[in-house]
């Protein structure tokens, strides 16, 4: 198994509902270590840049408004097959489609307020981690 890193964002809905601990426990229980973390309220510019890949999608404005609506918990997770593992822990983007027992099935209320973001590929993970953290801010225990 390849050790990988992935970026996780616990979104404003889950932070507001006091689910930082419950969600992080799921990461750790599955073998994903938190190797960097910070809590921030994103600026509009940060959100637009972070989600630039979606800039032509009809939901873009709502997406950036929501991610800026309150503080988020940003984490780098490291562990075996971290990118896919995190995506399976999160469940489908739309919580109505998310498998039982996944983070989105348990903590999300809609496709917009869907509790967590996770990188979707090796390349995206690299870019998203570098967007928020330097290598010196990542404390690998691999
Ligand atoms: P996230 O994994 O953060 O990536 C982009 C976000 O856009 C996604 O989670 C959803 O919260 C949001 N979104 C809203 N509508 C859609 C849609 N139709 N398809 C994909 N993502 C959507």
Task: Provide keyphrases for this structure.
142 residues, alpha+beta, Alpha-Beta Plaits, four-stranded antiparallel sheet, 20% strand, binds adenosine-3',5'-cyclic-monophosphate
Can you describe this structure?
Helices cover 39% and strands 20% of the residues. It is of the alpha+beta class and 142 residues long. The protein has 7 helices and 4 strands; from the N terminus they run E-H-H-E-H-H-E-H-H-E-H. The chain has a 4-stranded antiparallel beta sheet with strand order 2-3-1-4, with helices on both faces. The model has no long low-confidence stretch (mean pLDDT 98). It has a single domain (3-137), classed as Nucleoside diphosphate kinase-like domain (Alpha-Beta Plaits). The radius of gyration is 14 Å and the shape is globular. The two termini are 12 Å apart. The longest helix is centred in the C-terminal third of the chain and has 11 residues, at 122-132. The structure holds adenosine-3',5'-cyclic-monophosphate. Residues 54, 59, 63, 93, 111-112, 114, 117 line the site of adenosine-3',5'-cyclic-monophosphate. Residues 3-140 form the Nucleoside diphosphate kinase-like domain. It holds the Pfam family NDK. Major role in the synthesis of nucleoside triphosphates other than ATP. The ATP gamma phosphate is transferred to the NDP beta phosphate via a ping-pong mechanism, using a phosphorylated active-site intermediate. It comes from Candidatus Rickettsiella viridis.
């Amino acid at each position: 198994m390849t050790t990988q890193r992935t970026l996780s964002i616990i979104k404003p809905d889950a932070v507001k509902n006091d689910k930082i601990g419950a969600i992080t426990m799921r990461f750790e229980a599955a073998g994903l270590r938190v190797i960097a973390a910070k809590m921030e309220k994103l600026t509009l510019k940060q959100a637009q840049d972070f989600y630039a890949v979606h800039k032509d999608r009809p939901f873009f404005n709502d997406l950036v408004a929501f991610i800026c609506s309150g503080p988020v918990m940003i984490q780098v997770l490291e562990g075996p097959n971290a990118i896919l593992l995190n995506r399976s822990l999160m469940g489908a983007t739309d919580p109505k489609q998310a498998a039982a027992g996944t983070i989105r099935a348990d903590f999300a209320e809609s496709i917009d307020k869907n509790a967590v973001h996770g990188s979707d590929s090796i390349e995206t993970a690299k870019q998203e981690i570098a967007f928020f953290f330097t290598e010196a801010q990542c404390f690998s225990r691999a």
